[in-house]
Every structure is written in C-alpha cells, then in structure tokens.
Design brief:
Number of domains: 1
CATH class: Alpha Beta
CATH topology: Transcription Regulator spoIIAA
Shape: globular
Mean pLDDT: 95
C-alpha cells in the first residue's frame, strides 16, 4: 500500500494506492488518527488506486468518520472502483460515506 496526504484549502486529501489489508491497515489508521489529532476534521479519501480493503481498513474508516463528525467535520470518498463500492454496499457503508467522482467535487462539499 502507498499512502500520501496533502492539504487542499482547508481539507486534507489522503490518497491510497494498492491494498488495505491486515498488514497495512495500521498505517492507514495511524494516518487518519494523526490528522484528526491535529484538528484536521475534513478528510477526502482518494481511492482511485485502491484495489482492496479489509475489515481492518473498514474499521479505520468508520473510526475516522465518527471522530471527524464529532468535531464538526466529515470523511468523504473519491473514485471508488466497482469492487470497493460493492464492499462498501455489502457492509452498509454506502449510506455513511458520501462518494464523488473527483477530488474537486468532494472538497466543495465542505
């Protein structure tokens, strides 16, 4: 998994490529927690290059969403492929996370 983050306006964009599995989920979780601990509550997860997400990755997403919303922010998704969308739908996350086709539209929701 490759993960990077960059600020755009008052939003943080976290780009994830590869797989979030049991081995890489802690790094993904720590990245999100680090942003939230520094008061960064508006997060866009760019999943353009994400091929797979495990239950550990889903837990990290849900934890980040709860923390962000408690602080008046949100976590939104960009460019989920069909496999990731199916996973999100299967676990009911499609109702929790807004999804967008591009980063600019996602940033504009904040």
């Amino acid at each position: 998994m490759e993960i990077s983050q960059k600020p755009l306006k008052y939003v943080d964009i976290v780009t994830v490529n590869g797989r979030i599995d049991s081995a890489t989920a802690p790094e993904f979780d720590n990245t999100l927690k680090g942003l939230l601990e520094h008061g960064r509550k508006k997060i866009v997860l760019d999943f353009t290059g994400l091929d797979y997400i495990s239950s550990a990755g889903l837990r990290a997403m849900l934890s980040a969403l709860k923390s962000a919303k408690n602080g008046g922010g949100n976590v939104v998704l960009v460019k989920t492929n069909e496999r990731i969308r199916d996973t999100l739908t299967l676990v009911g996350f499609h109702t929790l996370f807004l999804q967008f086709d591009n980063v600019i539209d996602a940033v504009d929701t904040f």
